[in-house]
Amino acid sequence: MTQMCQILLIDDEKDNCLALTTLLRQNGYRVSAVHSGEAALELLQDQVYDLIISDLFLPGISGIEIFKTGKGIIPPNLLYSYYRQCFG
Hints:
Blueprint: E1 6-10, H1 14-26, E2 30-34, H2 37-46, E3 51-54, H3 63-69, E4 78-79
Parallel strand pairs: 1-2, 1-3, 3-4
Helix pairs in contact: 2-3
């Protein structure tokens, strides 16, 4: 029996979080999704994740701060970010 990868997804954009969570779950991954850095740090106290995917620009505790604060308790991970700009 193959063990599923446990992923922590952190994104304050709820639509993005839902879309990525759905995609990952459809591909057999277990996903915990939160919308703030504070919530992520709480989960990291009690759960071990194989992969953490985080937005860099979160309100409050940023994605970078999560990785700095969680150093030593989080696995090698992937950090993603995007920036939307409107041209008018």
